[in-house]
């Protein structure tokens, strides 16, 4: 199969799970394309699905070829990026902190390729053809804590994260700070599933939390979230706040809100910049409230289908959220960024 035929058949197709045997075909298909290499599986109703959808949308709008590649094994990261770089990929986008060292090792050798790390820390020193993007998700978690403090009947709320990383630790601490700002006597319990792709563990943790009297859980665990949602749906009155609008349908009577982090919108924005001739690398993009990427949003589906007493209570809760959001944006509220538990 020649290169053009391979592109025609597979550019924009479902994500490939990369193995060593696929690397030659990957290189053959890469010239001039925009490649998304995601390191968590698709089908998460969250970050990865958002990014794939927005890359497809932007490709259709701008008329470029694209590739979506699932690099499941960290041992393959460098091989995947090298194959794309050798083949002349125009833009390589990849995800999360695990790709930091491969980016550092390889990006300088491919100066004509633009590299974008979604959810990464600043490079020190900066690399001229690399942009890293981080998210002040903890600000949305603070708002979730404010909301939870008004909504909770038991005075007990919870947090389920994927892995105890500095950013997620900060999310938990911000949730706690937001809740305490409204209700100083509230109890906030955090737990980590040890994985972003383990719904069974998420359900186990959440079930125990709900059985212990917690009635509101903020998730922060990608595909593991679905297990938390499953636990919430087992009994009326259990509330869960997630990350993506796609999760409303998984628990229409229990998913009460989201701390929305639209990875798809972020990818769309950063890729659009990279397509422009005046793109500048060597920088770090910090994304927070007011950016269109991060916000706290009450579920319109829950407003229609949730228990009436909770639906009625959300108005007062959102008034408190709106006040806190305004305070964060005008600087009168400083949300702590504490990375230890």
Task: Explain what you see.
Helices cover 42% and strands 19% of the residues. By secondary structure, the protein is an alpha/beta fold. It is elongated, with a radius of gyration of 21 Å. The N and C termini lie far apart (54 Å). Residues 1-15 have low confidence and may be disordered.
List the strand order in the largest sheet.
1-3-2-4-5-6-12
**What structural class results from the helix and strand content?**
alpha/beta
- List SSEs in N-to-C order: HEHEHEHEHEEHEHEHEHEEHEEHH
The stretches of 5 or more residues where confidence is low (pLDDT under 50) are 1-15
How many strands, what sense, and barrel or not for the largest sheet? 7 strands, parallel
Number-wise, the strands total 13
- The percent range for helix content is 40-55%
Roughly how many Å apart are the termini? 54 Å
Rg computed from alpha carbons, rounded to a whole number of angstroms: 21 Å
Mean pLDDT: 91
What spatial form do the alpha-carbon principal axes imply?
Answer: elongated
Number of helices: 12
Strand content: 15-25%
What's the short story on this structure?
Helix content is 42%, strand content 19%. The chain is built from twelve helices and 13 strands.
Please outline the helices and strands.
Elements (H helix, E strand, L loop, with lengths): L2 H8 L5 E2 L5 H6 L5 E5 L8 H16 L3 E5 L6 H10 L4 E5 L4 H7 L7 E5 L11 E6 L1 H15 L4 E6 L4 H17 L4 E6 L6 H13 L4 E5 L4 H8 L6 E4 L12 E7 L1 H13 L7 E5 L6 E5 L1 H6 L2 H23 L11
Parallel strand pairs: 1-3, 2-3, 2-4, 4-5, 5-6, 6-12, 7-8, 7-9, 9-10, 10-11
Antiparallel strand pairs: 11-13
Helix pairs in contact: 3-10, 4-5, 6-7, 6-12, 8-9
